[in-house]
From TrEMBL:
Residues 1-24 form the signal peptide. It comes from the Bacteria. Residues 32-153 form the VOC domain. Keywords: Signal. It holds the Pfam family Glyoxalase. It comes from Pedobacter panaciterrae. This is VOC family protein. InterPro entries: Glyas_Bleomycin-R_OHBP_Dase, Glyas_Fos-R_dOase_dom, VOC_core.
Length: 155
């Protein structure tokens, strides 16, 4: 009788664990970012810009047609530059790519050396935004006028 009671008690205790395991198995992984594509007018100029400013690694691209550059952007995936955009398109600051760096102050030094104008969110030249959570941000444009943010939310 003691053995039967022990078996029943063990089964009762394992039931919630089995239900939670079944629920965990049913839940599928959500989507993950594969790449971001940026349409550019001058592939060589934009490739040099992203490589030099962000120290991105160029990776092989499958098309080999001279119209694409692919960069690794770490666990987030890839950045694809694609030749063919029309010049003179105005881009809104709300639509931007953001890169995190260990030090915004050191990054600003790089921007100054490369003579790249930057501003805070409000548009004040050479200024830094300080978010309410203490993260520093600066904004600037790539050669095609796409807005870029750099912050120090580096983890």
């Amino acid at each position: 009788m003691k053995t039967l009671t022990l078996i029943v008690l063990t089964l009762v205790m394992l039931t919630p664990f089995q239900k939670s395991m079944a629920q965990a198995e049913k839940k599928q992984q959500g989507a993950v970012l594969n790449h971001i594509a940026v349409y550019v007018t001058d592939l060589a100029k934009s490739t040099a810009f992203y490589k030099d400013v962000f120290d991105l690694e160029i990776i092989p691209e499958p098309f080999k047609d001279g119209k694409h550059t692919w960069f690794s952007i770490g666990p987030a995936g890839h950045l694809h530059l694609i030749q063919g955009a029309k010049a003179g398109v105005e881009h809104d600051k709300n639509e931007h790519l953001c890169f995190s760096v260990p030090s915004v102050d050191k990054f600003i030094t790089l921007l100054n050396v490369k003579k790249i104008e930057f501003e805070d969110w409000a548009g004040t030249r050479k200024a830094v935004t300080l978010r309410v959570d203490g993260i520093k941000q600066v904004y600037f444009k790539d050669p095609d006028g796409h807005w870029l943010e750099v912050n120090d939310d580096h983890k």
